[in-house]
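Newbie here. two chains, one complex. Structure please?
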Amino acid sequence: MNYVMSFLVGGLICLVGQIIIDTFKKNNAYLLVMMVVTGCILGFFGLYDKLVEIGHSGATVPLLGFGNSLAKGAMEEAANKGFMGALSGGVIRTAPGVAAALIFGYIVAVIFNPHGDK
Amino acid sequence: MKYNKDNYKKVVDEFTPKNKMLKNCIMAFIFGGVICLIGEIINDSFVAWLGISDDEASPMTSVILVGISALLTGLGWYDKLGKIGGAGTVVPITGFANSVVSPALEFKREGFILGTAANIFKLAGPVLLFGYFSSFIAGLLSMVFK
């Protein structure tokens, strides 16, 4: 059942993304920024956790979930450490994914050569 | 025919390729769904086989997905998937990883420091900037309202 819900919720979020791309015809970077900020807002109001309960990885794997982790990390740390926590909380919470992207990305770039597209 | 603002747009619309929105949406749904399904399977494997708690398994899943996506981008396969899957390959965290690796590869010929390293966040930088910015605001607001 979790697998079905992951597929459905994840698919739906990407479907919304596709509609946004097709409607506004902007670069993908706009969509990614929009997704992260929206996830942050939903996370701040505690709405996104309900979606995670339903959709599991379907909600945490899309970038909305990244925004949600950012907001939750910042809010938890802010409760403990105040201003400094608000600054660092989101960064700490999402650091593994970002560091992995940087490090793996660099290794891949060193090993492989660019593929001329088309 | 005299061009003005209104009929110019009409002419442009006539010659832009009709975007197959319905087909794009279905492909995005399927690709996004499958990537999230793979994420759930990885997540479940961590919990079931390695006895890792649900909270810790989620970031580990992200790391694995990022690694897979980086490798596929290096092989040139992820971009092929992206042409079919559209937003289904952009919105998941694998799309974020792809947006890091792509410029890193593309600028390789300009050197490893000024090329790859300097451009690695070319696309992902804005995402992190606005992400960190809004999380900081969320943290501040949570302090004010509690």
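Moderator note: Chain A touches chain B through 78 residues (CB under 8 Å). The CA atoms of residues 96 and 102 of chain A lie 10 Å apart. Thread marked as resolved.
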